[in-house]
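Researcher: Predict the fold of Pyridoxal phosphate-dependent transferase.
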Amino acid sequence: MVKIDPFEVDHWILTRHARAKHSLAHSYCASLSINDLQSYSGGSNDVNTSWASLLSKPMGYGPMQGSEDLRSKISNLYSDKSSEDLPIDNIVTTPGASLANFLVLFALLGPGDHVVVQYPTYQQLYSLPASVGADVSLWKAKENEGWRLDLEELKQLIKPNTKMIVINNPVNPTGAAIPRMALEAIVEIAKERSIIIFSDEVYYPLFHSIESTDRELPPSILSLGYENTIATSSLSKTYSLPGFRLGWIASRNPSYIDTCVNARSYALITVSQVDEPLASLALGAPTVQNLINRNLALSRHNVEVVQSFIDRNSTISEWVRPVGGPIGFIKFTKSGRPVDDAEFCTRLLDKKGVLLVPGKKCFGDGYDYQGYVRLGFGVRTEDLEAALDALQRFLDEDYAGVPVV
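Model: Structure tokens for Pyridoxal phosphate-dependent transferase follow.
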């Protein structure tokens, strides 16, 4: 039997969400309805037309790798002047990014392989390689240097059997970004040994605090001219449509897609034929850019709201201000010592009904990231402000009783 570690972040949210009056535990921008898509479609009648078409469409399996129309629109997401267009045959759709990640790691790794995984990050990205028998080394970001990744350390972590480097950009849970120059350096390091670079880009291109003209604005890993690259993403985070359950795997190397498609065949045949046409609508012009612009504006405003909260409580809280994704990693201390973050989150939920995610339990290995909590600020601004007001009352009334580590 394969041993898989408990998926801490999902278990934490699943077992507590029903009790929350204010949830800041989720990591996506405020979700939209199908009707909402109409207002982002530039005034066209595409939503009604697509829905009417769906009602009369025979519900067969559909194309194995996903509809050509949808994969063409996914390919457009990776189009830029610096790289060739991504062929649609180098894309396969999946029910969400979680399964996309699962397929990449399950299909391409096994016993005898070594993997270097950026850390902290989404637990799936390091627990799954370990579960299939791979040797995992954690490439720890420097929290006292703005969550910077040390490229010299990466070189030291690489072994003769290193098969894959796993990154997440923007980063869950910190909201940090791996800048262009660092990505280019990672590619050069990987090229020396033909190592696969797998990038979870579920928050790409939601870089709310980096100017579009900044030379260090991160591109997709697929844009850097290296064949052995894989990217995954979905409609859940950046596009506010998690209920569509539509993700994808894209690669410059068609053999990786073939391997993932084969593995996918053991688990499912095709993606829902209701989800795919609606996803194609969401990723079409001008809707896709309007959705990105909506969530950039929401994130830019809400990150300021959280920053003001941290400034008011600067003696006990701090963060490296996030630059991408609607998430941040906040550290709470008492007299310079980190609080017990799980106990902090438990008491906060019990006393004030606010749900946060504890860092050590859900994103830490051993004693890493004590005192940290992940806060999702992608909710509607009024909901964020209400949650932070309740959190402030907890700090004023109950924080003194929270134990330190």
